[in-house]
Amino acid sequence: MKLSLAIVALALAIPSATYAQDSTADSNGKYPNTFSSGSANVTPFTNQSKRFNDWSISVGAGVPLLQSADLTSIKNGNGKNLFGYSAYVSIDKAITHAFGINLQYDRGETRQGWFNTKNAAPDASAVGARTQYDAISLLGDINFSNLLRRVDNHSPYRWALHGYAGIGTIAYRAYQKDGSNKQTLMTEIKPFQLGSLFFQAGTGVKFKVNRRIDIEGRLMYVVTGDDEFDGGGDAYSAINKRSEQVSDNFFNATLGLSVKLGKHESHLMWHDPLQEIYYKLDVLANKNQDIEVCKKGDADNDGVCDDWDRQLDTPAGARVDGAGVALDTDLDGVIDLYDKCVTVPGPVENNGCPVATTGPVVETETKLEGIEFDLNSDRILPSNTPILNNAVNYINSSTGSYNVIGATDTRGTDAYNQKLSERRANNVKNYLIKNGVQTGKLQAIGKGEKDLKYPECEPATKCPEWKNRANRRVYFEAK
Fold this sequence. Notes:
The chain has an 8-stranded antiparallel β-barrel. Strands 14-15-18-16-17 form a 5-stranded mixed sheet. Helix content is 15%, strand content 31%. The N and C termini lie far apart (84 Å). It has helices at residues 2-13, 47-50, 144-147, 276-286, 385-397, 414-434, 465-471, and strands at 21-23, 42-44, 52-53, 55-68, 85-94, 99-112, 128-143, 159-177, 183-189, 197-208, 213-223, 249-261, 266-267, 363-364, 367-372, 402-406, 442-446, 473-478. By secondary structure, it is α+β, with helices and mostly antiparallel strands. The radius of gyration is 38 Å and the shape is elongated. The longest helix has 21 residues, at 414-434.
């Protein structure tokens, strides 16, 4: 039971932690766009880049109270002569702003009944006990106030709710005193043995006094896993048959002090990486110092400090987002400053505007440009009927015959794209025949993804959507 309890405790005490990131990017010198300006040179959220402390030492003292035992406890006692004493010291390491690990040493004494070396037994049949213990444990520390903090909360805070859980080894000496005032050592457990494993969990509320000192009140629940901890003696003794409880557990209420170590202004457990700028400004204001908004300046004058600017060479006059990246509303690779069709995607060569496709079919040498299709579709769109009607008139007025060629973009498998391109070509051919074109003048051919209008779109994720749509087409070629 003790071993399985320890395994469960270990799983609860080590939650997964997610690291925040800070990123910078260098311009590649090409046409400014959102696809290249904000994705390069990602660096981790580190102590060197964010300037915080992450070590501290904590000490505290309090009162342990047995919650359940065969001798007098909170559960079966009268509330008198139950108060012991305890103290702890720990070395604390913050892993992230929401999770840390504490190595803690506890020492204390629990009281069970009237037992006190200064008092005699109230009657000859009375039995009391006390237990002196020493414990070393490894605790996981979750900062719920930072973990659950609202992203839009820009203010610094001085109160924090923490949760603790962990396992360790406990050594104890349990003494019993009977009515004759005789004290007897009933049980002694040495540390660092399988039978000395224990589990503790609880919660604490911290108050930040200043950048160095925190005060914390904790309430921990200690599971000893031992029926002899209360001084009742052997598990099968007369005293230890009084209750079905197989573990003498206790609460430990403490008041402690934490000293934060390091040279930096803030500690990681009080540090909110999402709101770092607001925290820094508040710290500087409290110290009556002049506020230096941009330590590294603003090289491109876009209103975003170089410390957080992901595009350090934004063109003058361009609107930017919070990371200093020039806005590209329609995601066509042309920033809004240069885009003449801000809300409609189009190629760079056409200043971000779509190429006109509603006019007559254009003849270039022996090839007639055709129509485009939605992704994974062979349906002729209503917007394409004027183009196809012009194609009917053009083909009927000519003496030649034409190949109706279908193509796709690079999404999907080769086999699927081949069949999709054939369906597109046949649908267009059938439309032309129904509208007066002679059957002998047309031949449907599918080329799948092997006939890209923009070959650089392999894979499709390398190109904006307007280029992939241009690859999903049917066009006409003279035989």
